[in-house]
Amino acid sequence: MLTIRNLKKSVGGRVLFEEASMQINYGERVALVGPNGAGKSTLFSIILRSNEPDSGSVERDEWTMVGFLPQEAEAVGSETVLQVATGQAGMLDTLEATLRRLEEAGTVDVPEYFEAQAKYDALSNPQTEAKAKKMLRGLGYRESDFDRPAKEMSGGWIMRAHLARLLVMEPDLLMLDEPTNHLDLMSLLWLQNYLKNYSGALLMISHDRQFMDELVQTVYEIDERRLISYTGNYSDYLRQREENYERQLSAYKNQQKEIEQLQAFADKFRSVASKAAQAQSKIKQIERMEKIDKPKPPRKPFRFQIPEPPRGGQRSIELEGIEMAYGKNVVYRNLSLTIERGERTVLVGPNGAGKSTLLKILAGEVEYQKGTRKLGHAAKIGYFSQHRAATLNPNNTVVAEVMDANPNLREDEARGILGSFMFRKEEVFKYTRVLSGGEKSRLNLVKFLVDPPNILLMDEPTTHLDILTVESLILALEKYAGTLVFISHDVHFIRKLATDVLHVNDGQVTRYHGDYDYFIEKSGAGDERAALTAG
Ligand SMILES: Nc1ncnc2c1ncn2[C@@H]1O[C@H](COP(=O)(O)OP(=O)(O)OP(=O)(O)O)[C@@H](O)[C@H]1O
Ligand SMILES: [Mg+2]
Q1: Is residue 227 exposed (0-12), middle (13-18) or buried (19+ Cβ within 10 Å)?
Q2: Closest residue by CA, ligand 1 atom 9
Q3: Is 36 in the pocket of ligand 1 (CB under 6 A)?
């Protein structure tokens, strides 16, 4: 249904990929993977014709309806959540206008018309509203939020409403750019299950191993400007890549050994008259060999160290008798809690239990109605919110953004740190507004490093980060001397880091003084993923 041939694309003088080809058949499930900034989202925009390749072609069957979920949520106007999910606001009108325009021009026999018609039909179907509600519920919405203006919701929730609309339309090809980034575990599992039974084709960008393992049968990787395809799910892809490397490496080594032997013979007998001809033929043999390149070893996580922050008091943060409500919705009543220096605490609990709110209370980012929050001696807080793009100034270059975070820094120092975060050479002069999702997250990490807090509060720090960068972050946080409180649904990340677990449910906070496995055992919460959202 979709064929891509020989695409080449460069941005800002850098080639993202070339000779990229791909084919997707009806009903096929495909993942597109690769490091942050490799060009995955850019490839999507070319397939969607919102961006032009330098060369190559994209062909799509005329009859296919394509639905797309962008990496960052599209802005909304005054429509309600349900209106976004049913396409009533804006979308239907736009589609109708497109249809009228093409009809008036007498060009109704074109793919654009078929697609607009199919989308229009899908959204004006009498079943649409019921279907939209079902999707919204699955994605974690409460009934009472259906009629709220979407713009009151956070970016992640707006994205869910857009996703609900796509699922309602049931496109033949569903293109999702990091769909799990803004989902909690319950809705992630719901989506996974829904997509398993989805009849159309799927093309998704993701850094979530388990999600891809459950869903895809083909993996394309952007690696060193090439698009390489692997058959199987994500684990199969990892295995094949490893095997390819081992195979190439041993082929390379064998050939090197052979060359050495031939060369040694030639060197030894070159000046022996009776054997000179033989020696010469060995040299020829070496020259005639098709040389095998030494394969590049798999990339390793880059190592960075969080500079030692000023030492804080024994008690980092103390909450006492906190009452916190959003309007009538009481989240905490009489909450008391102490976070001690050097602990690495993960917050777990069901969807909507108030984990992000607790982190914001600790950070001093929300106003609560009652109680006190006491900071320890010399406390210096760094808060890494769930919505990080908004924390960057779009008109700053990458290096200026870092120097704003710590004005004592010289430019060469800032560039040095940025270099170890993969912002190389002139890349530090990019405007922050053109950065990819993962690059934005990385830049936010750099901003912490240049002015390290001794209390670090992080809400889903691994979203948008590629798999190796997550490893790098784990390595750095393991050595971090300050206090860490974080929210995550990445079991691997939690296992590596948590020394304490706080279970949040129904306004109650229970402490488990031990690592994640201790929590699973003590709480009887079931398997490692279920434990994250257990009530
Ligand atoms: N106008 C521009 N000028 C310079 N560089 C740009 C511009 N637009 C995009 N880029 C760069 O192109 C690269 C590819 O971006 P893209 O969003 O496709 O990456 P991605 O693979 O989706 O990454 P991520 O996993 O972080 O989402 C990034 O390095 C980005 O900074
Ligand atoms: Mg992207």
Answers
A1: buried
A2: 434
A3: yes
| CA–CA dist 481, 494 (Å, integer) | 17
**pTM reported for the whole predicted model:** 0.84
**Same domain, yes or no, for 270 and 378?**
no
Residue 384 shares a structural domain with residue 341: yes
Are 34 and 116 within one domain? yes
Instruction: Indicate the top mutation candidate among 7, 9, 10, 11 to test ligand 1's pocket, ranked by most ligand atoms within 8 A of CB.
Output: 11
- Domain shared by 254 and 230, yes or no: no
Cα–Cα distance, 209 to 82 (Å, whole number): 31
> Are 101 and 231 found together in one domain?
yes
Taking only the tens place, the pLDDT of each residue in 416-464 is 888 878 888 888 999 999 999 899 988 998 888 888 899 999 998 998 8
- The answer to whether the CB of 411 falls within 8 A of the CB of 403 is yes
**pLDDT surpassing 90 at residue 89:** no
Same domain, 334 and 284: no
| Residues of the domain holding 462 | 315-533
The pLDDT score that the predictor gives to residue 126 is: 85
With a 6 A CB cut-off, is 37 part of the ligand 1 pocket?
yes
Which CATH number does the domain housing residue 190 bear? 3.40.50.300
Residue nearest to atom 13 of ligand 1 (CA): 37
Neighbour-count burial of 311, counting CB atoms closer than 10 A to its CB (0-12 exposed, 13-18 middle, 19+ buried): exposed
Count up the domains in the chain and report the number: 3
d(CA 500, CA 339): 10
CA 438 to ligand 1: nearest atom: 26
Using a 6 Å cutoff on CB, does residue 11 contact ligand 1? yes
Residue where the block lists tokens 């249809």? 99
Q: How confident is the model at residue 386 (pLDDT cuts 50, 70, 90)?
A: confident
Residue 437 shares a structural domain with residue 404:
yes
